[in-house]
Amino acid sequence: MSKHTKFTESNALPSTVHLQTALSQPIRQAPQYIHTVQTPIYRASTIIFKDTNALNNRHWSDDYDYSYGTHGTPTTYNLADQIAHIEGAKYCLLAPSGLSAINLVNSALLNTGDEVWIPDNIYSPNHDHLVSLQQKYGVVLKIYSPTDLDSIQFSSQSKLLWIEVAGSITLEFPDLATLIKKAKAQGVMTALDNTWGAGLAFSPFDIYDANKSRDNEKLAVDMSVHALTKYPSGGGDILMGSICTIDKKLHLELLRMHALQGIAVSGDDCAQISRSVSHMALRYQQHHQNTLKLIPFLQSRAEFSQVLHPSIASHAGHQYWKAICQDGLGAGIVSVIFRAEYQVEQIQQFCNTLRLFHLGFSWGGPTSLVMYYDLKAIRKLPTPHLQDGWLVRFCIGLEHADDLIKDIAQALDAFSS
Fold it and tell me: Which SUPFAM superfamilies does the annotation name (predicted)?
């Protein structure tokens, strides 16, 4: 027997069992004194109970419910604890993707007749999921302008307010403090898509009111939903999402639906993200710095009628970004709007000519990405703060900023000629 293998009276096998029986039994245990930098990977469907007391005393609402693989393992709970810590939350649930986390919020909280309010710049798959709930189950979908909060008119049926910071694609930064206060005054739950901020640009559970001092009552969203696929993963190769909360009752409501839907995540994927989280803040800072270096160049090009990023003084919601993101962080995304005379074929030519920016969805990885959009097709409300024309979104990776600038320049030069 290896000196590194520990057997106790409770798991020791009779000496007379056949070899195949011995090989099939879970008798191997790690020594208790072993500590490693990274949490070991636990792969489990079945989890063995110590005895009948452990079996009978388990409860689905336990903070660490080690009763079945879908509920959690030390590997998955470790990542959940890490994300909760980053976001300043007390509780965190994991889901197989960011969209899965969004759908969990919608399915757990919305019933027939309930109103859900979404910004016009919402992550489009969330909009599509809510349209499906409206058509199938009678959920009432309402759309508001992120730059005109008077467009929100809550009723007695209003149940949930989705907030996008910064707005998907066009990056508007809303008056987050006013949105939270407006919802709380009417008893409406708030769900923030915090993928852009990643828990690093600002804390979703300690929001600064730009109109008041820090001595005032803390403002917090009810839920922070995060696509861990992006910055926490950081490699462009893992799908996962999270829902963070500070309220126990709300957490249990979400946890119950999480269990009923059989939502589970891979221990291997959790271990990979846990490892990446240790240098996530450094990567986020570099994405941001690269973006800031690109902005003056983009503003200098005559092909663009508008450059969109919260750090730009003329950008929609710049004052709220400046107040809430007090370290001046702004992620690694910048969008441009081409002059209105350019046609879609020219925009496609530009995207195809880029060498370091690759056509692809998502962001937060080491490789820079590009995508183009027809704003008229994806916005439902008037957008007077945006110029007419095709929009191109750059997701800035970890390449040297000078090389990225040269790549955009050569594509624009080829495009213009």
Answer: PLP-dependent transferases
